[in-house]
Amino acid sequence: MPAARWALVVDEIVDIVEDRLDIQVGSDTPGVIGSAVIKGQATEIIDIGHFLPLAFEDWFRRKELGAQALTRTLLFVDDSAFFRNMLVPVLKAAGYEVVAVGAADEALALIKKGAKFDAIISDIEMPGMNGFELAEAIRADVRCAHIPIIALSSISSPATIERGRQAGFHDFVAKFDRQGLIAALKETTVEFSEAA
After folding, report:
1. CB atoms within 10 A of CB 192
2. Are 74 and 91 in contact (CB under 8 A)?
3. Per CATH, which fold does 58-195 belong to?
């Protein structure tokens, strides 16, 4: 697949800096990833992935997802507002309806109330109940045995991946891998549709 080319129109270029980006303070504002210190100045970092779907409804939508994704509802569980703000717009732009929560117990409460989801995406490292424990709790509920669960983690060691499989995760994706997440969703939801 060819690399995407993007352009950003601005009123004026103030400076051009080439540096490693280190987000120091996350943001709860949609479209703002957080703040970083760049050349000694606090600078807000915007998330282009949030704004593109607002301007172009089908920007991230892949042809192979087609109408299938449009009817899919996802439960996205991550205690970090930073990652929820970064990934929810990407998932919506790919055609999914997304319900995002900040804790595993909130996710379980929705499931116990009868909310239906076609797939669940969960962070692993969360305070309180972690992602492994959430997956095990979901698997213990017979009503949810068919739901694919994808793990999001910044740690992807073989031991962590194996622990995820034992807990009931179907796939393991790095937190910043947006394309990998969409591909994993497509693969797991197609597998489960064919098995049903």
Report:
1. 15
2. yes
3. Rossmann fold (3.40.50)
Residue 69 has pLDDT above 60, yes or no: no
Question: pLDDT over 90 for what percent of the chain?
Answer: 33
Closest Cα to residue 85, out of 76, 96, 94?
76
Amino acid at residue number 164? G
Of 71, 65, 46, 177, the closest CA to residue 121 belongs to: 177
Domain ranges of the chain: 58-195
pLDDT band, residue 64 (cuts 50/70/90): very low
Neighbouring-strand partners of residue 42 = 37
Q: Six-digit token pair at 36?
A: 């970083």
Cα separation, 131 vs 150, whole angstroms? 10
